[in-house]
Design goal:
The protein is of the alpha/beta class. It has 3 domains: 5-128, Methylthiotransferase, N-terminal domain (Rossmann fold, 3-Layer(aba) Sandwich), CATH 3.40.50; 136-378, tm_1862 like domain (pyruvate-formate lyase- activating enzyme, Alpha-Beta Horseshoe); 384-458, Nucleic acid-binding proteins (OB fold (Dihydrolipoamide Acetyltransferase, E2P), Beta Barrel). It has helices spanning 15-29, 54-73, 83-89, 92-96, 112-122, 168-172, 180-192, 218-228, 246-254, 271-276, 283-296, 315-328, 355-378, and strands at 5-11, 33-35, 44-49, 78-82, 102-104, 126-128, 150-154, 156-157, 176-177, 197-201, 233-237, 261-263, 301-308, 332-337, 384-392, 399-403, 409-413, 422-430, 435-444, 455-458. β16 and β17 (409-413) form a beta hairpin. α7 (180-192) runs parallel beside α8 and α12 (315-328) runs parallel beside α13 (355-378). The chain is globular. The two termini are 41 Å apart. The structure holds 5'-deoxyadenosine and iron/sulfur cluster. Iron/sulfur cluster binds at residues 159, 161-163, 166, 168-169, 203-204, 240.
Length: 459
């Protein structure tokens, strides 16, 4: 398009940041910016940072150095930084990197167009890191990008849990839930614009509704979305085990459109470490919840987060994490070496674990997980799964890629006209990161018929 300016966004961290970046892109579209994948062509660069772990933070800083060089070649280039690092550092970032033009915190995405205008008009810098209680930043309604079938919907922001390793409550503020009617309207809007699957986002979706002063809670929200929003698939993330209620577990049987997958971060299998992490559950309680989930939904996929080398973690504590992994046999886990975060309670623990021990433990967790993931994927060989087709496969235009309800990626041969529909696929081969399948049946009339009325025909 003639006359537009180029926007280059780099996103670090979680799904929430990915969603924030999509919203930034939409907001700036109204100001004449179009996204580019080439940083060298950019008129505006935004780095959306994450500081949950040391590694993500370091990556953001090293990128800043690279963009400084681009500004030396093109002095008109505007560079902005948002997300958790921006929230944490605020105006200090400008002192550290004087070539920065914009710093916006986790609650200030909606202020970005005005900040940009200020910078352009005055040739000055803008910093905004205040917390907004009205959760304005949650209400940005953006059109899904063309061709997308999945989208995120934020249902709450902030966190009140203060796990001792975690910086999120300091950078994303206190928990605040969005009104359920706003959420339903947003999902209906997305469904009307081609979205088939939504992921409800919150640091701890299980405490949804606590700030709303009505009877809304997360299970009731899920049921309402299932009944009213007209969306094919619902997912959510993340869920704190201490707040996983029987009502929520029952939703996996009661809400048809709820995908049979839960991300339930355990962090450690040692009760001593869990207590020091301020997690408010024991490994036994966690295992009990897993058992209940599997009682309600035998083939539910369960994924988790694990931290190794938390201060005070001895060999026998670590062994308890391994024992728990053997008992649960997670479909997948994200595992991390503990990194100290400034301002958190665990910063004060002085029995830190040496880096070399952390690295060894991480390796053990990751190789065990690979074995478990492959096992759980292999169990699907020969089975028929409903797949929401998301697009063409990365490397092959003759193949398409989609996901099972249990969130496993499946590649299979088919033409692009089925993108955006749910089809039946027989799983023929399991790998660690994906599955291979064969198209068996397409569903006719998707979008015109309700889930219960859908008609399948063989392929
Ligand atoms: N060190 C290592 N991992 C961390 N996480 C959060 N904070 C830290 C930290 N200081 C991990 C947790 C959390 C995930 C999003 O990141 O496992 O669930
Ligand atoms: Fe961090 Fe714990 Fe809140 Fe999750 S629940 S965001 S780990 S403090």
């Amino acid at each position: 398009m003639a006359g537009h300016k180029n926007l280059y966004i780099r996103t670090f961290g979680c799904q929430m940041n990915v969603h924030d970046s999509e919203q930034i892109e939409e907001l700036l579209k109204e100001k004449g910016y179009r996204r580019t994948d080439n940083e060298k062509n950019a008129d505006l660069i935004i780095i959306n940072t994450c500081s949950i772990r040391e590694k993500a933070e370091q990556k953001a800083y090293s990128l800043l150095g690279r963009f400084r060089k681009l500004k030396e070649i093109n002095p008109g280039l505007i560079i902005g930084i948002g997300g958790c690092v921006a929230q944490q550092m605020g105006a200090d970032l400008i002192k550290k990197a004087p070539y920065l033009d914009l710093v916006f915190g986790t609650h200030n995405i909606h202020r970005l167009p005005a900040m940009l205008q200020y910078v352009q008009k005055n040739g000055n810098r803008a910093v905004e890191t205040s917390f907004h209680e009205s959760v304005k930043s949650l209400g940005i309604q953006t059109l899904p990008r063309h061709g997308r079938v999945r989208s995120y919907v934020t249902i709450m922001q902030g966190c009140n849990n203060f796990c001792s390793f975690c910086v999120v409550p300091y950078l994303r503020g206190r928990e605040e839930s969005r009104d359920s009617s706003d959420i339903i309207n947003e999902i209906k809007f997305l469904a009307d614009h081609g979205i088939r699957e939504i992921t409800l986002l919150g640091q701890n979706v299980n405490s949804y509704g606590k700030t709303l002063h009505n009877s809304s809670n997360f299970p009731s929200l899920l049921k309402k979305i299932g009944d009213e929003a007209g969306i094919e698939r619902i997912r959510f993330t993340t869920s704190h085990p201490k707040d996983l209620s029987d009502d929520l577990i029952a939703c996996f049987a009661e809400v048809d459109s709820l995908c049979k997958h839960i991300h339930l971060p355990v962090q450690s299998g040692s009760d001593y470490i869990l207590q020091r992490m301020n997690r408010h559950y024991t490994s036994k309680e966690y295992l009990k919840k897993v058992e209940k989930l599997r009682d309600v939904c035998s083939n539910i996929s369960i994924t988790s987060d694990i931290i190794v080398g938390f201060p005070g973690e001895k060999d026998n504590d670590f062994q308890k994490t391994i024992d728990l992994m053997e008992k649960v046999r997670f479909d997948n886990t994200f595992s991390f070496k503990y990194s100290v975060r400034s301002g958190t309670a665990a910063e004060r623990y002085d029995d830190k674990v040496p880096e070399s021990v952390k690295s060894k433990r991480l390796e053990v967790v990751q190789s065990l997980q690979k074995r478990h993931t492959l096992e759980s994927n292999r169990a699907l060989e020969g089975r028929v799964e409903d797949i929401l087709v998301e697009g063409y496969s990365k490397n092959k235009r003759t193949d398409v890629v989609g996901r099972t309800g249990t969130n496993k990626i499946v590649n299979f041969k088919a033409s692009g006209d089925i993108i955006g529909t749910i089809v039946r696929v027989k799983i023929t081969k399991a790998y660690i990161n994906s599955l291979r399948g064969k198209l068996i049946a397409k569903r006719r009339g998707i979008g015109n018929v309700s889930r219960n009325e859908s008609i399948w025909f063989s392929y």
